[in-house]
Structure formats: structure tokens, C-alpha cells
Here is the input.
Amino acid sequence: MTERQRVGWIGCGRMGSAMAKRLIAGPSEVLVTNRTRAKAEALGELGADVVDHPIDLADCDVVFVMVSADPQLLEVMSGPLGVLATESAAPRIIIDCSTVSTGASAHAREACAKRGVEFLAAPVSGNPKVVASGKLTLAVSGSREAFDEVRPLLDQLGHGVTYVGKGEVARLVKICHNMFLGVVTQAMAEITVLAERGGIERSAFLEFLNDSVMGSTFTRYKTPAFVNLDFKPTFTPELLQKDFDLGMAEAKNLSVPMPLAELCTEIVASTVSAGHVDEDFAVLLLEEARRAGLTLESENKVIDDGLGGK
Here is the structure.
């Protein structure tokens, strides 16, 4: 690839915008589009060229996709105004960073193959703040040759880029990751509520946890939300429910019993049913406290989240 390659970006939501910003800061010419143009215009102010539809990115060298679900992926790929809709041009490589089903990913890959376009599944782990801190991780599957070609672009997005194999296996990696995320968060909520019921401040318990061998980047990152009941969304319970449903479907297909994940699927679904749809999935803490008959209050403390912020 030339140094001044043309890179397209489809999807300028919270995650898409955060990731695209890192490419805009690099050497490539970046073109962006979004269903709601105003979100793309914000990236235009940073130096990206804003176009109206995915079809307008057909002459780019590489196109990234970051959309919310299966129908959106198929629409921006093969719909009437999709990036593959014109016969006159097509990108060499399309990289999809969305969290979608393996079936939708396979359909997108097939559509690309018909046009001679390489397709990489590259779902990510992180949220906008993780992206900004440079700690995003990506699992990538597809052609190894295509992966090696775009590796410099992927490295601009985060610090951990792992090639995991051919086909759609990266989708399963991401689904497994997000199921683990939900299980860990529910466990963290339960033990935190138990500690508080026993008279221990959440901040004190979580400080101990984070400094122990059981602490992690994730538990430290979620500690401010747990301590101060700050549930500004990074990843909503509805999105987590979608991933649990996808994961349990894969478990059934592959004949893998997952009793703990099955129980967490039900808990997340009940959290959504309780009306927690626009908050961060750390709100699992409130539902656990409610079931325990415990009313939580913010401790209003400045807590290090481990990502260079407070």
C-alpha cells in the first residue's frame, strides 16, 4: 500500500468515531460516512472527508465498517447504496469491526468474494475511552495476506492486534470475550453487594480487590462506576444481551454446556426488562442490590480508573 492510501470508514457512532479519529491522525486520507450525517461531520472537522453513502467509498483502498448489528452490516455492504453496490469500483480490502453474528459475517464475506474483495472480520474489545487511551484490542480473521497488508492500519487503532485464523473465527472470539465480560461483571456486582451488606465501603473492598491477584484492568476500570454509581453508557445491557444470545446459540450449535453463562443470560435479560436499556452494563450492580434489598448511594470519591483518567 502507498503511504497516502485512501481509507474509508462506515459508522460514526461512539466507537466508530473514536476509532476513526486515530486513523485521521495518521498518514492516510480518510473518508467517512454515517447514516446520520451530522455524526460524520464532527470527524470532518478533524480532517476527514465526509461522503453521503457507503457507495461513495467504493474507490478507497481499504474500508472499515463499525455498525451495530447484522442488518446494518448487510445494508452498508450490499444494499442499494452499499460499498459493493457499484460495478465500476470496489475496495481491495474491507475490515469489519462490528460485533455481529457469524452468519451475517459469512454473508458479507461471500459478497466480497464475488467482487474479488478481501474481507477481514476484526471485532474489537474496548470502549471510546479505551480507544482514546490506545488500549483497544482486536481479533482478526480472514486471509493472512490481507491481514499482513493492513496490519499498520490496525496497529493505529490499538495496542493489541491478534490474528486468530481464517473465516469467521474472530466473531466467536469476540462473542466469547463479551460473554466473559458479562459473567465477570455479574460476579463483581454480587461480591461487592455482599461486602457492602457486611458493612464494608464499596471503595475499600474494590481497592483491596484491585490490588490483589484477582484485580485486572477491567475491574479497576469499572471501579469508579461501582463506587459512584456513574452509569454513563460505554456498553449497554441491551448490547450485552445480544452478545449473550449469540453466544448461547453458538454453544448450542457446538454442543458446549455453559450453565454459568446461561444463568447470566437470564440475569442480563431481566436487567433489560427492568428498564435498564440506555445505561452502562455496570448497572448490573443496581439490580443485584435490588434483589438483596439494599439501596446503594454514591460514595462521591475520586477513583483511578487505570486508563489515565479519574
